[in-house]
From TrEMBL:
<feature type="compositionally biased region" description="Basic and acidic residues">
    <location>
        <begin position="57"/>
        <end position="67"/>
    </location>
</feature>
<feature type="compositionally biased region" description="Polar residues">
    <location>
        <begin position="22"/>
        <end position="31"/>
    </location>
</feature>
<dbReference type="GO" id="GO:0016020">
    <property type="term" value="C:membrane"/>
</dbReference>
<feature type="compositionally biased region" description="Basic and acidic residues">
    <location>
        <begin position="37"/>
        <end position="50"/>
    </location>
</feature>
<feature type="transmembrane region" description="Helical">
    <location>
        <begin position="150"/>
        <end position="168"/>
    </location>
</feature>
<feature type="transmembrane region" description="Helical">
    <location>
        <begin position="446"/>
        <end position="470"/>
    </location>
</feature>
<keyword id="KW-1133">Transmembrane helix</keyword>
<comment type="similarity">
    <text>Belongs to the major facilitator superfamily. Monocarboxylate porter (TC 2.A.1.13) family.</text>
</comment>
<feature type="transmembrane region" description="Helical">
    <location>
        <begin position="82"/>
        <end position="106"/>
    </location>
</feature>
<feature type="transmembrane region" description="Helical">
    <location>
        <begin position="377"/>
        <end position="402"/>
    </location>
</feature>
<feature type="transmembrane region" description="Helical">
    <location>
        <begin position="209"/>
        <end position="229"/>
    </location>
</feature>
<feature type="transmembrane region" description="Helical">
    <location>
        <begin position="325"/>
        <end position="344"/>
    </location>
</feature>
<feature type="region of interest" description="Disordered">
    <location>
        <begin position="1"/>
        <end position="79"/>
    </location>
</feature>
<feature type="transmembrane region" description="Helical">
    <location>
        <begin position="289"/>
        <end position="313"/>
    </location>
</feature>
<keyword id="KW-0812">Transmembrane</keyword>
<feature type="transmembrane region" description="Helical">
    <location>
        <begin position="351"/>
        <end position="371"/>
    </location>
</feature>
<keyword id="KW-0472">Membrane</keyword>
C-alpha cells in the first residue's frame, strides 16, 4: 500500500523519532514552514495543550502556516553537549555576573579611598548603571540569539568584559571608574547574560529551570569567591594589582567558556518575527503588566541590601571578620538557593514558588533594623541570600511562563527586563539619597532605607499575586 505523501517543507531527517503515545509528555519542537519553532507538548490534558497554543487575538500571522507533520528534533534534556554547554554557561556567569554581584566590596573600598569625596548615592550609580545596561539589552540580545549569532555575542561580550576589567585596574577618578565598570562591563553583561541563559535553556525542557538555576549558581559562586579574594588583595597588594589579577582569571575562564559553549546546530537559525506587533499584543494583556511591574518592584528593593551589606554590617556591631566575609556569606547562601529552587519551581510552577520567596525577602529587609551584633549580621546575610538567590533564578522563568509558544520566550522576558532595568537603575541611588537625607546622631540611619526596600518588595509581591491569579484562571491549575 503506497505511503501518503506529506506536504513540502523543511525536514530534519537525522532526528526522526517514533510516534508518541497519547500519554507521553515528551516535549518537542515542531518545525514550521517559515522556519519558526513552536513548543508542543502532546498530552491527553486539553488544558496542558491549550497552554502552548496561541491565545485569542495573538499570533494571527501564524495561522497562515500549518505545522508540517514530520518528526522534529527533541530537546536533548541531557548528553555530553548539553552538559558541556551548561558548564560553559556557569563559567560565563561566574566571571561576569559573579563579579558584578560583588559590587558591595568595590563600593566599600571606593568610598574609603578613590571616591571618598563622593556621596554613597553617587558611588552607587556606578553599580546601578551596569545593572541597567544588563537588563535594557535583554531584548536585543535575545533577538541576536534567535537569529543565530550567539557565537559572535559570546566572543564580543567576553572581549568587552575583560577590557573593562583591565581598564578598571588603571582607573583613579570617578569618570574613569564609571566608564570601565558601568559602561564597558555593563554592555558586556547585557550582551552575554540573556544569550547565555537562552543557549543553556535550549538544550532542556523537563530540566530547564534546574539547569538554568545551576547556571545562575555560577554567578553566586563568583560573588562568593571574588569578594573574599578582593578584600584580601585590596589590603595586601592594592586596588590596581587586585583588579588586574581578577581580570587575568576572567580572561582564562571566558576563553574556556567560548570553547565549551555551542548553540544547537539541529535547529536552523531563523529570522525573528517583527518585535513591535508582539510587544503591542503582550501589553494588551493584564498579566504582562502585573508580572513586569511585580518583577521591577521586587528588584527595586532587592539590590539595596546587596549593594550596602558590607557597609551596613560594619556600622551595626559586626566583627571585622564578619564584615570582610559578609558579601561572601550572602552570596554563598544565594548559590545554594539558585541550584535547589529549580526543583521546586519545576514541580509547583515558577510563579507559585515566587510568591513565598518574595514575601520572605520583604520580611528579611524589614528585619535588617534588628541587626546589632555579629550573630544577627550573619543570620541576615544567610536568610536574605537564600531569598534573593531563589528570586534571581525564577524571575526570568516566571516571565517566560506567560508565553503561548517558545517563539515568545525572548520577547516576553525582554519586555519584563525593560521594566526591571528602570528599577535596577534607580533603586540603590534612591537608597543612598535616603541615607543622606536621614542622618542620625549615633551613625547612619537605615530605617528609611529598610522601609523603602521592604515596601517595594511587598508591592512587587502583590503584583505577582495578581499575575498568579490570572494564570490560574487561564490554565485551570495553581501550578503556574
Amino acid at each position: 500500500m503506497p505511503r501518503p505523501s506529506t506536504p513540502p517543507g523543511p525536514r530534519l531527517a537525522a532526528f526522526d523519532t517514533p510516534p508518541l503515545s497519547p500519554q507521553s509528555h515528551t516535549t518537542t519542537l515542531a518545525t514550521l514552514q517559515d522556519g519558526a519553532d513552536v513548543e508542543k507538548s502532546p498530552s491527553t490534558d486539553e488544558k496542558d495543550v491549550g497552554d502552548l497554543q496561541e491565545v485569542p487575538g495573538e499570533g494571527k500571522a501564524d495561522e497562515e502556516h500549518e505545522s508540517v507533520p514530520t518528526a522534529p528534533p527533541p530537546f536533548p534534556d541531557g548528553g555530553r553537549r548539553a552538559y558541556l554547554n551548561t558548564c560553559g554557561g556557569v563559567l560565563v556567569l561566574l566571571s561576569t555576573f559573579g563579579a558584578s554581584n560583588g559590587w558591595a566590596v568595590f563600593q566599600a573600598h571606593l568610598a574609603a579611598n578613590q571616591l571618598k569625596d563622593y556621596t554613597p548615592s553617587a558611588i552607587s550609580w556606578i553599580g546601578s548603571v551596569q545593572l541597567f545596561a544588563l537588563f535594557i539589552l535583554g531584548l536585543p540580545s535575545g533577538r541576536l540569539f534567535d537569529s543565530g549569532h550567539f557565537r559572535a555575542q559570546l566572543a564580543v561580550g567576553s572581549v568587552l568584559w575583560c577590557f573593562g576589567m583591565y581598564m578598571l585596574s588603571l582607573s583613579k577618578t570617578y569618570y574613569q571608574i564609571f566608564l570601565s565598570w558601568a559602561v564597558c562591563q555593563g554592555l558586556a553583561l547585557g550582551i552575554l547574560f540573556a544569550g547565555t541563559l537562552s543557549c543553556v535553556g535550549s538544550y532542556f525542557k523537563r530540566k530547564r529551570t534546574v539547569m538554568m538555576g545551576c547556571t545562575a549558581g555560577g554567578a553566586a559562586l563568583g560573588a562568593v569567591v571574588f569578594p573574599i579574594a578582593l578584600n584580601h588583595l585590596f589590603e595586601t597588594h592594592g586596588f590596581a594589582f587586585a583588579v588586574r589579577l581578577i581580570a587575568y582569571l576572567h580572561t582564562g575562564l571566558l576563553i574556556l567558556a567560548n570553547l565549551l559553549m555551542r548553540p544547537r546546530d539541529d535547529i536552523p537559525p531563523r529570522k525573528p518575527p517583527p518585535v513591535a506587533p508582539q510587544i503591542v499584543s503582550f501589553l494588551r494583556q493584564p498579566q504582562t503588566w502585573f508580572a513586569s511591574l511585580g518583577c521591577s518592584f521586587v528588584m527595586l528593593g532587592m539590590f539595596i541590601p546587596i549593594f550596602y551589606v558590607q557597609i551596613f554590617v560594619k556600622e551595626h556591631g559586626a566583627s571585622e571578620t564578619v564584615v570582610q566575609y559578609a558579601a561572601a556569606i550572602l552570596n554563598g547562601s544565594a548559590c545554594l538557593a539558585r541550584v535547589t529552587v529549580g526543583f521546586a519551581a519545576d514541580r509547583w510552577g515558577n510563579l507559585t514558588v515566587a510568591l513565598p520567596t518574595t514575601l520572605l525577602m520583604a520580611a528579611v529587609i524589614f528585619a535588617m533594623l534588628g541587626v546589632s551584633d555579629s550573630a544577627g549580621a550573619v543570620a541576615f546575610c544567610v536568610v536574605f541570600g537564600i531569598a534573593s538567590g531563589a528570586w534571581v533564578t525564577i524571575m526570568a522563568p516566571s516571565l517566560i511562563s506567560l508565553s503561548a509558544s517558545v517563539r515568545e520566550f525572548g520577547v516576553r522576558s525582554g519586555v519584563g527586563f525593560l521594566f526591571v532595568s528602570v528599577a535596577a537603575l534607580i533603586g540603590s541611588p534612591v537608597a543612598g539619597a535616603i541615607l543622606r537625607a536621614t542622618p542620625s546622631s549615633t551613625g547612619t540611619n537605615y530605617t528609611g532605607v529598610c522601609v523603602f526596600g521592604g515596601c517595594a518588595v511587598l508591592i512587587g509581591t502583590a503584583f505577582l499575586s495578581a499575575t498568579w491569579w490570572l494564570q490560574l484562571k487561564r490554565k485551570g491549575t495553581w501550578r503556574v
